[in-house]
Amino acid sequence: MSLDTSASLKWTAIVVRLLLALFAATLAYEIGRAALTGGENAFGPLGGHSSVCVASPGVLHVEGNVTEDPRRARAVAQSSGVDDTPYPVEKGVEFAHGLPQLCKDDAGLGTQSLYQTSRFATPLVVLVALFLLDRLIADARRDSGFDETIVRKLRFLGVFLIAGTLAASLYTTIVETGLAVSMVAGTVREVGSMALRGWSFPWAYLIAGLGLVVMSKVVRVGAHMREELEGTV
Question: Which pLDDT score, from 0 to 100, does residue 45 have?
Fold first, then answer.
């Protein structure tokens, strides 16, 4: 490996390691605050209420909603036009109309565990991916080049990022949909379609992972060409 290439990888390794450290510290802080406060965004005061907030089902997807009661619908239309309880919910559950969301305070340990793991699923996958990238760069510097082992690790990193973020986003969607359904005091129609609409598809991570897989193929071709050239010489 030339001195210029070695220096380039050195600075790349420093940048990746700094990013990894910053991301790990931020994630550890948020997880710690969530464990201590139980708050939705982990920024509440210590000893505050445990709050679980998820996207609420659409009004028309819940039986017993306001539109199925003509009198109530007319009363709402003649007043503010907003109903504080557009459909029945379980005890302790409140509507947050700004998003809209369903929020429940003092949720049990099981509910909090599901909710918090769904919040941090994708960031944890990204953290592992950054660690793998750091190890890959270290191996490339130590082995003085991009051989077949480095190519395989690069391809694995791309596949891991694609599969990991996809699985994490699905887990988050399933958990939050299940929590939303559990907060409704009634039957929710078309739960599957509601989950699909609420699925935050990880396009950016999938494109980044695909780019790494493609890059591994490019590097593999370059490595083979270099080997053939060295063999010829």
Answer: 46
